[in-house]
Write a structure and sequence with these properties.
By secondary structure, this protein is an alpha/beta fold. Helices cover 33% and strands 19% of the residues. The protein folds into two domains: 6-175 and 265-347, Alpha/Beta hydrolase fold, catalytic domain (Rossmann fold, 3-Layer(aba) Sandwich); 179-257, no CATH class.
């Protein structure tokens, strides 16, 4: 199953802060077929620095980030579901973002890109789904930042979906209110930074590579590579290569814009609006979203009357567990989605 990029475009998209994007573009991929009533769709939402290739094989030959979970006969069954995976607003893989050309200047927006929020990100996806003819979602499902989007969908459009699958994530952004300022200070250490206007200066690959190495290690990449590359020196070299390759693709201003949106994100204040069923999944070894979060999140969901289920992944792979150890929670995901899919089919 090949994952192909498609584009949704609209004009004059108003952001929560009042600014208007003259042109909005979202890159996305789809898998399966939309039912005539438009009610068999599932929105797959990606992580912080990932892309819209959730399933199948990417154009570069690598598997989609949840390819073990999405496909014919898999828990997210594309024989029965129309899966839409959107590259979010502000990201680096084809959607309108800081590295996009500002139609007013003919140059990249860079640091002049207007501030975006999680409500903006899901509102752009809602416009895309409306354009595609989706009338109702079986579920919104995604890991990490994709889980943020799931929580935001649940409170922004409470009647538009039956389920939310939020993995290795939380209902509010981590890192504190100054996290984005710390990231900007780090990016500014690159000699090409130039106040964020680095596009004609050679980019900021040096600092982006260093940030990616640290991030991969925080995510659990060393445990993931240990069996295939037992030698620590060679493993470190492999991580450096992975980081350097990523730094040629992902934009620093995009990272900063999404980090700022994360800083202000807190869906827990609106749990009373949620109508969808929830599956909340954390990984035992995740350093970003540890299982210690579960009692508070589950308690708040249940206090708000939400039908919520919690599952803890017994994995050594930390933040990467939802995809690298997908088999360990695939039965739980399948059991959660099965009645929701059946309900959509009964209404067809």
């Amino acid at each position: 199953m090949q994952s192909e990029t498609r584009l949704f475009r609209t004009r004059d998209f108003r952001l929560a802060g009042g600014a208007v994007l003259p042109e909005l573009q979202l890159a996305y991929a789809t898998y399966g077929k939309l039912a005539p009533d438009g009610r068999n769709a599932l929105l797959a939402t990606h992580g912080f620095t990932s892309d819209h290739h959730a399933a199948g094989v990417r154009p570069n030959g690598t598997p989609g980030w949840w390819s073990a979970l999405i496909g014919p006969g898999r828990p997210i069954d594309t024989d029965r579901l129309y899966v839409v995976s959107s590259n979010m607003l502000g990201s680096s893989y084809g959607s309108t973002a800081p590295k996009s050309t500002n139609p007013k200047t003919g140059r990249p927006y860079g640091p002049d890109f207007p501030a975006i929020t999680l409500p903006d990100i899901v509102a752009a996806q809602k416009a895309m789904l409306d354009h595609l003819g989706v009338k109702h979602l079986v579920a919104v499902a995604g890991p990490s930042y994709g889980g943020f989007q799931g929580f935001q969908w649940a409170v922004s459009y409470p009647d538009f979906m039956d389920g939310i699958v939020a993995a290795v994530t939380a209902p509010k952004g981590p890192g504190g209110s100054d996290a984005a300022d710390k990231l900007q200070a780090r990016l500014a250490t690159d000699p090409n930074w130039n106040g964020g206007h680095y596009y004609d200066k050679g980019g900021i690959g040096q600092v982006m590579t260093a940030i990616r190495v640290e991030t991969l290690k925080l995510y659990g990449v060393e445990a993931d590579l240990a069996a295939a590359i037992p030698d620590p020196v060679k493993r470190e070299q492999a991580i450096q290569r992975m980081a350097a390759e990523w730094a040629t693709e992902f934009d620093g201003n995009c990272m900063l814009a999404l980090r700022r949106a994360m800083t202000h994100f807190d869906a827990s204040k609106e749990f009373g609006r949620i109508r969808a069923k929830f599956l909340y999944v954390l990984s035992r070894t995740d350093k970003l979203f540890p299982p210690s979060l579960a009692p508070e999140v589950m308690g708040a969901l249940k206090a708000a009357g939400v039908d919520a289920t919690y599952f803890e992944l017994d994995s050594e792979l930390g933040h990467m567990a939802s995809h690298r150890d997908a088999a360990k929670w695939a039965p739980v995901l399948q059991g959660f989605l099965a009645p929701l899919i059946a309900r959509a089919e009964r209404k067809a």
